[in-house]
């Protein structure tokens, strides 16, 4: 008996969106292993091991917005209050890609140094690594290389997909639109002193982020969990 709720409508991909390459759906390739192809056609992907579940780990400095990013993606919610992740947490998101069920396991890891030891024990076996930094905090971008190195120590660098994600874009955009004088502790209590002071500094930040992403061979995204962009 199947007790799982149906897959959410926006998680059903009947056709691959243009931005996705066909190779992303491995089971449609001609030379894919016949046993797996057959299991996919018969919806028995549970019998072919790791094929059914993809593990994604989300790493980055404390308070950069990892939990909020996952919550926006999985539950479409946002909480402005900061609650530190202790060790790790995880969410499971179900998809159907070209008729085949897939589950995405999203591991939210703690950014705080004292929990790093616990969190890193969950890095192994990831198919994708998302390294998050705060677009308004230069130091958090500088630390992304160390986060990547730590995560890659437990994974196969040749097969893992990498994403560099700049968070809290709404703060930068607000700054660009309103100017810094109208921003303050009252509006954004978690602003740090490293906040870029001018639009030019923000542009520099994005340029540096793109450079880091290129060096890492990661795909770069700038996002806001507050607005959902
Ligand atoms: N304005 C704004 N605030 C955000 C955004 N994302 C996260 N925040 C805030 O930043 C703070 C930290 O967010 P979390 O998601 O808990 O950060 P984290 O990286 O999971 O932190 P750790 O668990 O300590 O590693 C919270 O107060 C959030 O509300 C965003 O996109 N925009």
TrEMBL record:
The keyword Iron does not apply. It comes from the Eukaryota. GO terms for cellular component: Golgi membrane. It is an enzyme of class 3 (hydrolase). It is a lipid-anchor. SUPFAM superfamilies: P-loop containing nucleoside triphosphate hydrolases (SSF52540). It holds the Pfam family Ras. It catalyses: GTP + H2O = GDP + phosphate + H(+). Keywords: Golgi apparatus, GTP-binding, Hydrolase, Lipoprotein, Magnesium, Membrane, Metal-binding, Nucleotide-binding, Prenylation, Protein transport, Transport. PROSITE patterns: RAB, RAS. Its EC number is 3.6.5.2. One of its GO terms (molecular function) is G protein activity. InterPro entries: P-loop_NTPase, Rab, Small_GTP-bd, Small_GTPase. The keyword Nucleus does not apply. It is found in: Golgi apparatus membrane. Its cofactor is Mg(2+). The small GTPases Rab are key regulators of intracellular membrane trafficking, from the formation of transport vesicles to their fusion with membranes. Rabs cycle between an inactive GDP-bound form and an active GTP-bound form that is able to recruit to membranes different sets of downstream effectors directly responsible for vesicle formation, movement, tethering and fusion. PANTHER family: RAS-RELATED PROTEIN RAB. This is Ras-related protein Rab-36.
């Amino acid at each position: 008996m199947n007790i799982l709720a149906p897959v959410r409508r926006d998680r059903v991909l009947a056709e691959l969106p243009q931005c996705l390459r066909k190779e992303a759906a491995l089971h449609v390739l001609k030379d894919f292993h016949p046993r797996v192809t057959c299991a996919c056609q018969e919806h028995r992907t549970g019998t072919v091991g790791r094929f059914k579940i993809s593990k994604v780990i989300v790493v980055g400095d404390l308070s950069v917005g990892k939990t909020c990013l996952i919550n926006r993606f999985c539950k479409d919610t946002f909480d402005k209050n900061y609650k530190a992740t202790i060790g790790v947490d995880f969410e499971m998101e179900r998809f159907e890609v070209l008729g085949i069920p897939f589950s995405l396991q999203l591991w939210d890891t703690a950014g705080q140094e004292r929990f790093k030891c616990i969190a890193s024990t969950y890095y192994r076996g990831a198919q994708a690594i998302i390294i998050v930094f705060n677009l308004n905090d230069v130091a958090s971008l500088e630390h992304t290389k160390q986060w990547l190195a730590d995560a890659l120590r437990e994974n196969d660098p040749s097969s893992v997909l990498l994403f560099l994600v700049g968070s809290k874009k709404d703060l930068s955009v607000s700054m660009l639109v309103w100017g810094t004088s109208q921003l303050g502790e009252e509006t954004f209590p978690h602003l740090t002193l490293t906040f870029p002071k001018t639009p030019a500094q923000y542009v520099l930040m994005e340029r540096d982020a793109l450079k880091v992403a290129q060096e890492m061979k990661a795909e770069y995204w700038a996002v806001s969990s507050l607005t959902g962009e």
